[in-house]
Specification:
About 25% of the residues lie in helices and about 30% in strands. The protein is of the alpha+beta class. It has one domain. Strands 1, 2, 3, 4, 5, 6, 7 and 8 form an 8-stranded antiparallel β-sheet that branches. A hairpin with a 3-residue loop joins strand 3 and strand 4. Helix 1 packs across helix 3.
């Protein structure tokens, strides 16, 4: 389940506008920092994560989304038995905006967005509020945290923070509505602490 994200456009517009007004140029796309290893006859394992994986604590550079939330962690937090194996999607770079996405089967999509820190996390999450239908429930997690229902009937959890000279936005879209809204703040905090 892939869908275009308004956050990419909003972040790009804000970052590009801020960059243009300061006379700066867009940063080059990120270079892969995969460690080199000696040649081996066995293929590398698929890009998946489980709760047994050690999670990063706010790395200086983002390289993926799945590292911040494992499939078992999301199913446990939401109290569901739906399969949710984490699968990293290709990253998307648009000027100074980089998006990393991790899918969890038919359960969820985690999008982690990184932009230069010349905008605030709240300004980016506020722009996404227009996608909400019905009630918007604020969360005391990060900057501008809230969750709401989208026009597609999904539940979306958004929040952000500024760290390592970047604004990092967490956008967790749950494809199965009515999960456990009481668990959303703790789930958002878990991921945000790792961003």
């Amino acid at each position: 389940m892939h869908r275009s994200r308004g956050l990419v456009t909003a972040a790009c517009l804000l970052a590009c506008a801020a960059g243009c007004s300061q006379g700066t140029t867009a940063a080059p796309p990120p270079v892969s920092t995969a460690p080199s290893s000696p040649a081996s006859s066995t293929p590398p394992p698929p890009t998946t994560t489980t709760s047994a994986v050690t999670r990063p604590a706010s790395p200086a550079k983002l390289t993926e989304a799945c590292a911040f939330l494992g499939g078992e962690e999301i199913t446990s937090a939401l109290g569901t038995s739906l399969p949710a194996q984490a699968h990293e999607e290709p990253s998307k770079v648009d000027g100074v905006v980089t998006n990393f996405q991790c899918t969890y089967g038919d359960l969820a999509l985690l999008t982690v967005t990184a932009v230069p820190d010349d905008v605030t996390p709240k300004s980016l999450t506020d722009q996404q509020r227009k996608r909400c239908t019905g009630a918007i429930t604020p969360m005391a997690v990060g900057s501008g945290g809230y969750f709401c229902r989208t026009p597609e009937g999904f539940e979306e959890i958004l929040t952000g923070k500024t760290v390592h000279r970047q604004v990092r936005i967490l956008d967790l879209t749950l494809f199965v509505p009515g999960n456990r809204p009481d668990a959303y703040p703790a789930l958002a905090k878990l991921v945000l602490d790792r961003l």
